[in-house]
Amino acid sequence: MSASFSIPRDPLDSEHPLARAFASFTEAAGSLERSYGQLQGQVEHLRQELEVTNRDLSASLEENRRMRERLRRVLESLPCGVLVMEAGDRISSLNPEAARLLWGNPETVDLLPDPLLAALQFARDTGEERELSLASPDGQRSTWVAVRHAWLDQDHSTSVFILRDVSETKKLERERENVRRQQALVEISALLAHEIRNPLGSLELFAGLLAEADLADESRRWVEHVQAGLRTLSSTVNNVLHLHNAPLPECAAMDLGELLDWAYEFLLPLAKQARVELQVVNEVRGVVTLADRHRLEQVILNLALNAFRFMPAGGWLAISASDLGDAGTEIAVRDTGPGIAPADLPRIFEAGFSTRPGSSGLGLAVCHKILEQHGGAITVESRAGHGATFRLRLPRWSATL
Q1: Burial of 319 by CB count in 10 Å (0-12 exposed, 13-18 middle, 19+ buried)?
Q2: Residue 251 falls within a domain, yes or no?
Q3: Among 201, 221, 198, 199, which Cα is nearest to 210's?
Q4: Which residues pair with 321 in a beta bridge?
Q5: How far, in Å, CA of 204 to CA of 288, rounded?
Q6: Are residues 272 and 217 in contact, defined by beta-carbon separation less than 8 angstroms?
Q7: Is residue 264 part of a domain?
Q8: Which alpha helices (H) appear in 213-255, and where do they start and end?
Q9: How much of the chain, in percent, has pLDDT values that exceed 70?
Q10: Is residue 5 part of a domain?
Q11: Residue 398: which pLDDT band, with cuts at 50, 70 and 90?
Q12: In a shared domain, residues 309 and 356
């Protein structure tokens, strides 16, 4: 009888279950390790992409911040006001210029005045520009504002209003209109002056003939009053012509003494009518200067009439002249009137300026213009309550001229 027996298997045999399990575990571990490696690679890739995205997002945010800051600065520096309003007329934003035009600041401007709300509504409804005057809170100042509208979005829920300060434009328009009216007035005045001067000259001639006639004292006094009135009227007419339509002076050699003799004879009836004592100190006979005698006569007449009008209760007027050698010649006209207030001194030679009601304010302006045309000057010395002294300076005359 034969015996049989079996040889035990090696546990490491690949056919052994334990070996197969170990091999499967090893394979699974390798696969897991490979998957983990792949996952790490993907994570690293995603991390790099996320870093790039974050950098791009940070750069975009920074660019947006810079853009917003740039737009804010542009908005604040605009010369016009920008007012943004939501539905219900609620102010959402405005720039400093808009706040200035609305007499406030971005923190305090919340309620708009009714006239402005009406102008905003008009601009929104019509699309046309509207102008209105806005008064300051204290009522002491006003600003002209032009309003224009635009929609910020397509659903018309947000309005943008552009506010422009047109005060300077309005001021220029008013000045242009004033200049136009003044020019028309000048043309009419010059026309009337020309029309009046011819018959006035005839009246002065006839009054002069009457003064030379053998009349009774009372009649002679009446003639002197007529002469005084005609000479005053003639002075006004000549002032208009000299100021607005005067050609250059026709200068020629003239004797200052003869000019002062004329002044005494011509002004005496006016002085008597004004109850003013007239004194002419004539120590310049034979002193020659270069001037347009008729223009200088107008200057002396204007100064004398001005003095008479400011001495209604009477006073004293003195006219004198002197030879200044190389400095030229000077004529002085002094009065004992009320004088000139210090605040008025800088303006007395401006056309239209006068402190006396009813005066045209042309006399001293004409004097200044005539002396300026002669290359000379007129100055004044005065203290309130102590009269005034006007000095007319003429340049030196040379026979070689």
Answers
A1: buried
A2: yes
A3: 221
A4: 331
A5: 29
A6: no
A7: yes
A8: 217-244
A9: 82
A10: no
A11: low
A12: yes
Residue 136: which CATH number? 3.30.450.20
Residue 14 and residue 35: Cα distance in Å, rounded? Answer: 26
- Residue whose entry in the numeric block shows the structure tokens 């042309």: 362
Q: Is residue 18 part of a domain?
A: no
Q: Which domain holds residue 233?
A: 168-245
SS3 content of the chain, % helix, strand, coil (to 5): 50, 20, 30
CATH code where residue 376 lies: 3.30.565.10
CB-CB neighbours of 149 under 10 Å: 22
Query: The sheet that has 377-382: what strands, in order across it?
Result: 276-281, 315-323, 329-335, 388-394, 377-382
- Give dist(CA 365, CA 348) in Å, integer: 8
Regarding whether 282 and 266 lie in a shared domain, the answer is: yes
Residue 400 has pLDDT above 50, yes or no: no
Q: Look at residue 127 in the predicted model and tell me its pLDDT.
A: 87
Domain stops at, among 136, 165, 194:
165
Q: What are phi and psi of 297, to 5 degrees?
A: -60, -40
pTM across the whole model: 0.51
Give the whole-angstrom CA distance, residue 166 versus residue 172.
Answer: 10
Burial annotation 40-49 (CB, 10 A radius, 16+ → b, else e)? eeeeeeeeee
- HEC assignment per residue over 326-353: HHCEEEEEEECCCCCCCCCHHHCCCCCC
pLDDT for res 257: 92
Q: What are phi and psi of 303, to 5 degrees?
A: -65, -40
* Residue 303: other Cβ atoms inside 10 A: 25
Note the pLDDT tens digit of each residue in 79-108.
Answer: 888 888 887 678 888 888 888 888 665 555
Q: Read off the amino acid at residue 279.
A: Q
Q: What is the DSSP string of 274-298?
A: TTEEEEEE---TT-EEEE-HHHHHH
Distances (CA, A) of 373 to 29, 162, 248, 277, 384: 117, 51, 7, 31, 30
Question: Are the CB atoms for 390 and 380 separated by under 8 Å?
Answer: yes
Tally of domains in the chain = 4
335 vs 114, more confident:
335
